[in-house]
Amino acid sequence: MHTPDSPFYTEDHQAFRDQLRRFVEKDISPFIEEWEAAGRVPRELHEKAANIGLLGLGYPQEQGGNGIDDPFFSIIAAEELARAGSGGLCIALLTHNIATPPIVHAGTDEQKAKFVAPVLAGGKITALAITEPEGGSDVANIRTTAKRDGDSYIVNGAKTFITSGMRADFITTAVRTGEPGLGGLSLLVIEADTLGLDRTSLNKMGWQCSDTATLYFDNCRVPIANRVGPENAGFLAIMRNFNHERLMLISTAYAFAQVCYDEALAYARERITFGRALIKNQVIRHKLVEMKMKIDAIKAQLEILSWRVWQGEAPIAELCMLKAFSTRSLEHIAGEAVQILGGAGYIRGAKVERIFRETKVLSIGGGANEVMIDLASRQMGY
Q1: Would you give the DSSP letter of residue 262?
Q2: Is residue 94 part of a domain?
Q3: Among 121, 83, 128, CA closest to 263
Q4: Long-range contacts: 279-286, Cβ < 8 Å, 24+?
Q5: Which of 333, 211, 203, 317 shows the shortest CA–CA distance to 261?
Q6: What is the value of pTM for the model shown?
Q7: Which of 37, 85, 96, 143 is least enclosed, having the fewest CB within 10 Å?
Q8: Strand 170-176 versus strand 126-129 pairing type
């Protein structure tokens, strides 16, 4: 996957790739089936990931990060983690990348020390709670309320489809503290031992080793000190991370598409049917080329957009379009990979079988593709 003469990658990137590949081969791949069956990733893995610098990518050094604001390390992380063939592993290990940025950008020094540094060290797990049972991801209509009571808020409501929601020690939660609409939202960090907090595990089509929960808040008392940023300014803190979240999802879709292609190509070369390798059939070669065309197009645009965001641009329309294109492409590529492997691709334990089940979540999460395409059209003035 590495391109030695690429203007975006250096020897430092290659060294990080080599280290991460060893980590995946030793500490992840041999245990994926066990974790899938258990429905969660062990906490110890977070500490190991922190020790090799994976959890701290892009975070300030004073909070335990590596201090390197370079999106190409994140692309490499997506590529190498995808080699294990489990989207659940990736999202369970990196949930903090959607839950901690609002605290990094809008939180106090005390909040960063309490809620960010322990997560980047691998000792604590965090989750982001926005989606609700009634309104999905319609942020403007969030119904979970937080009423002031002395030096605390009393929180009531529910959140659902919360990634890492069962294991999370800290839950960055969108609540309504003001009037209806986006202007009445605030962010609270709700700790796991808060009285009145209850959790129910959800079973899913894919992402089996990523725990997902519905959260219930029944008169939960949360200190005002846990509010991130000013009251009723929560939407701005949430919105600030949208572009980075889209880049993360695009990188994930691209990386798993590459794994599907690699698995299909290797199988087509090794599988002998009717006296010759499967790849000797024109229809199989054409399938592989179609897969490679899409993958290379996604990677080229991903790298350009990552560089532009790194330079301070906000190419919202292009990110929305690539998010939709990359996830749709993954659905096609994963399906073709299963087709090429035939029965071997339909058996549990095959990477392409698991990836095929997990493609749909990327088309839904982080903004459904229909929403992405409509947002792109409006950004372009249609």
Answers
A1: H
A2: yes
A3: 83
A4: 284/340
A5: 333
A6: 0.93
A7: 37
A8: parallel
Residue 172 and residue 64 share a domain? no
4 located within any domain? no
Contact 355, 260 (CB under 8 A): yes
Q: Choose among 102, 97, 113, 378: nearest CA to 245.
A: 97
Whether residues 251 and 366 share a domain: the answer is: yes
- Cα 80 from Cα 13, distance rounded (Å): 12
DSSP structure string for 5-50: T-TT--HHHHHHHHHHHHHIIIIIGGGHHHHHHHTS--HHHHHHHH
Half-sphere exposure of 297 (CA within 13 A, CB side): 14
Pair 93, 212 in one domain: no
Structure tokens at 72: 């190409």
Which tokens go with 68?
């390197």
The angle formed by the CA atoms of residues 161, 154 and 101, to the nearest 5 degrees, is 50
d(CA 88, CA 60): 26
Q: Which of 369, 343, 345 is nearest to 357 (CA)?
A: 345
- Widest CA span in the chain: 79
pLDDT band per the 50, 70, 90 thresholds, residue 134 = confident
* pLDDT tens-place string over residues 11-51: 999 999 999 999 999 999 999 999 999 999 999 999 999 99
Tokens standing for residue 33? 């089936």
Rounded (5°) CA angle 115-243-103: 15
* Type of residue numbered 302: L
Give, in order, the Cα–Cα distances in Å from 228 to each of 15, 110, 159, 247, 305: 36, 11, 18, 24, 29
d(CA 130, CA 234): 11
Answer yes or no: are the C-beta atoms of 144 and 132 closer than 8 Å. Answer: yes
Answer yes or no: are the C-beta atoms of 189 and 197 closer than 8 Å: no
Beta bridge partners of 128: 172
Mean pLDDT of 208-222: 96
